[in-house]
Amino acid sequence: MLSPLPLITIGQALRAALAQNPDLLNGLDALSSSRWAEKAVASSFLPQAIPFFNLDRGRNDAGRGETYGITATEQFPFGTFLQLDASVNRDPIDFPSAPWASDYRVTLAQPLLGGADPAVTREPLREARRATQGQERSLEILRRRTILNIYASYLGLARQLEATRLAADHRDRSHQLTEFSRARFAAGSVSRLDVLRAEQEESTAAVAENDAQNAIEDFRDALRRAAGFPADLRFAIEAPDAIPDAEPDVEAAAREARDLRFEALEARDAVVDAEFGVRIAKSLELPSLDGVVGYEASSIAATANDALRIRNPAFVFGFRSRYGLNTAALSAARREAEIALQTRKRTYQVLVDDLGRDVRRAYRRLDTVRRNWDIAVENRQIARMQSEVAQLRFEKGLSDNFNVVDAENLYNAARLYELDSRLSILLAKLDCLFAAGRLDVRPFLQQP
Fold this sequence. Notes:
This protein has 448 residues and is α+β, with helices and mostly antiparallel strands. The protein is 64% helix and 15% strand. It has helices spanning 10-20, 22-43, 118-186, 192-227, 250-260, 262-285, 304-307, 328-395, 402-436, 441-445; strands spanning 7-8, 48-56, 65-75, 81-90, 100-111, 236-237, 288-301, 314-322. The strands form 2 sheets. It has a 6-stranded antiparallel beta sheet with strand order 2-3-4-5-7-8. β2 (48-56) and β3 (65-75) form a beta hairpin. α3 (118-186) packs antiparallel against α6 (262-285), α3 (118-186) runs antiparallel to α9 (402-436) and α6 (262-285) runs antiparallel to α8. The longest helix is centred in the middle third of the chain and has 69 residues, at 118-186. It is elongated.
């Protein structure tokens, strides 16, 4: 006796998918990579120190020259740049009486025109943070789409299992009709055509059952792929009859989609990115003018300790500027940034309108499948009664089996349509939640 297959509920499939789905794992890796890249960019605004040492060996050890020291820099987010240089040099060949020399320099530079806008300096850090934010939103969108994918595969598998059961029932009923038609033909009460018609109906039902069984494995594979299950895992399922969250009012959903859909938030931030691009391009188009404040000191001595003492200090204040005569590239960059801003504003507005249309489309579909299900339930009852009446008339010899075959086909189609309508309601509800940006992952993961 075969042991029963392990049952995998919709909650278990969802939890497995969010932990094992390969696409989600790739998204997590991309987010982790983006966060490391952001840290790397942020580190460039921390103090940087580079020690150095250089040894110049002459003809003998006494003639050896050496230089060592450190260079430290600090780029502040508001544009100010600080640099510290300290070095000690030993040159016994050219300066035998005082071979040691030290040099100290501290320079503070601040852009005053071109690049003075703090946004210019902070742009690499802002872009890195935006890249991380974009990856976080993409991952959340992927999580929500994974929920849709799991439900589509899970309910598709449930549909095919039920369709297989209905097809087997249809085949059994067709076989009974065939046997009864053969008996009636042997008794001379029906023609050979009735037997052939019943046999053909039985064959058609067997083909439908085979197709349904084949589709079962297709949906099993899709569910294994979406949930990250092993390729050879065998399991049973239990179709859910509801989802753990209710869709909001259609008007509220259409109105709030721009603030809840991550696609809209990302498009809105892309407009902000373009605004920063224009701001930076305008700042860089200005002539370069930096204010510089410096401190310098140097010393020459016979010993290293004496050379380290600060002598001859001096403060320096001045300006430095550079500006190319050909400004076409800077002007073009500014104009390109302005065009990009207009394009992104237009794209965002079109996306917002499309999201509103998507919400209303999803709600119209939900309303349609609900009304269709009500019709399908009633139609199934009528088709069942029609099949029973046709079967009874044939058994009593009041008609041939043509009406029975036709009624059986209608009854089987009505049962399949009622099944499809019932499961389509759940998928339409999910589509409404997704379109409205209300598809919260947490309540779905809390399902049994």
